[in-house]
Amino acid sequence: MNGIICGTGSYIPSYTMDNNDIAGLVDTNDMWIRERTGVVKRHIIKDETTASMAAEAGKRALENAGMKAEELELILVATISSNVILPCTACEVQKSLGAVHATCFDLGGAACTGFVLAYNTASAYLEAGVYKTALVIGSESLSALTNWKDRRTCILFGDGAGAAVMKAGEGKGWLPVTHSDGGKGEALTCRSRYCSNGLTSKLRPEDMTDEANFIQMDGQAVFKFAVKRVPEVIQEVLEANALKGEDIFLYILHQANKRIVEAVAKRLSEPIEKFPMNLEEYGNTSSASIPILLDELNRGGRLKTGQKLVLAGFGAGLTWGAVVVEWSCPVKQPYGS
Ligand code: COA
User: What is the pLDDT of residues 226-260, one digit of tens each?
Assistant: First the structure.
């Protein structure tokens, strides 16, 4: 048995803030942000929540797969920004979709590696024959974890959700490769949190003063970690599956920073065209970035059955990992069609 993707979906909040809007909050400018990160704008929740975005992305993925919610046996949500501690976001998705037969839980704390780890977890259950269907979601309201007074971090992040429906297929699965280094965890932390973003909600920015309640980051340490470890883990996953770079159609990396993606492509001696990016539009949406990009590629008709993709995530913990996906999602369904 093998876990295969049979549908994708995403949800992006309509409210946006571009770099000039950020320059109205902190001492920065559009050119600096574009050059150092590649980000031009980010989408921010207004009425949405992490759970509502997850549910909508999941609903769209089910429609894309041609599957009913009642057929789902597992719902996994990767998130570091759930709205409430209990119930978990996956159970809120279950309620919203009516997926009454699903077992539901969240993968919290895996941050920007979250979707890769959730995908691996679902694949392992499907391969073992424990479940036959799964809905895997990455959903984040990072705007609520962002210190909008800190120019070193607030330029980077955005909100959104992406999802993939998986089912058990014939054949042997691909081996994933994942790593963690808790010894370097101080590079990217968030000790506690406010339940609001202070931008589009009632809690006022002046009431949100404890910096430990927001993401804190040693940007250069994270940058160096990513450009070293991501190419390494991609090489490892190719070797583990007896594949070469030429076998891979696209590398779908966590969308943190354009310079990180470019550096990874260079270190792998692969053309940058094999590394699609959408961070210009969304910023870094943590666990949601890989499935949002996957959904855009799928709905845009870029992916064909049999093509091999590598998904690679990296982030807080520190954690990083890569997995090979053989595309098997025959339904092409652009939004609005
Ligand atoms: N606008 C203008 N200037 C800024 C700025 C901003 N938003 N943020 C920092 N600066 C300034 C710094 O104060 C510093 O000024 P100084 O030289 O006078 O002290 C200068 O720019 C360089 O700062 P530095 O932190 O060295 O910048 P950088 O080139 O490392 O870029 C990041 C900063 C955050 C863009 C970069 O480190 C990065 O992308 N890191 C990875 C972050 C990431 O992807 N995290 C998520 C992983 S999942």
Answer: 999 999 999 999 999 999 999 999 999 999 999 99
Residue 36 CA, closest ligand 1 atom number: 35
CB 68 within 8 A of CB 62: yes
**pLDDT class of 162 with cuts at 50, 70, 90:** very high
Residues contacting 131, CB < 8 A, separation 6+: 73, 74, 103, 122, 125, 168
Domain ranges within the chain, ordered by starting residue: 2-169, 177-191+208-326
Q: Is 284 a catalytic residue?
A: yes
Catalytic residue among 6, 284, 298, 329: 284
Q: What percentage of the chain exceeds 90 in pLDDT? A: 84
Angle at 323 between CA 224 and CA 261, to 5 degrees: 35
pLDDT in tens, 102-161: 999 999 888 999 999 999 999 999 999 999 999 999 999 999 999 999 999 999 999 999
Homologous superfamily (CATH) for 2-169: Thiolase/Chalcone synthase (3.40.47.10)
By DSSP bridging, strand 248-253 and strand 308-315 are parallel
257 CA closest ligand 1 atom index: 44
Centre of ligand 1 from the C-alpha of residue 274, in Å: 27
CB 312 within 8 A of CB 254: yes
Homologous superfamily of the 177-191+208-326 domain (CATH)? Thiolase/Chalcone synthase (3.40.47.10)
Structure-token pair, residue 159: 């909100």
The binding-site residues of ligand 1, defined as CB within 6 angstroms of any ligand atom, are: 28, 32, 36-37, 112, 151-152, 155, 217, 219-220, 222-223, 256-257, 284, 315
Q: Do domains 2-169 and 177-191+208-326 have the same CATH topology?
A: yes
Mutate to test the pocket of ligand 1, among 36, 229, 259 (most ligand atoms within 8 A of CB): 36
Nearest alpha carbon, ligand 1 atom 48: 315
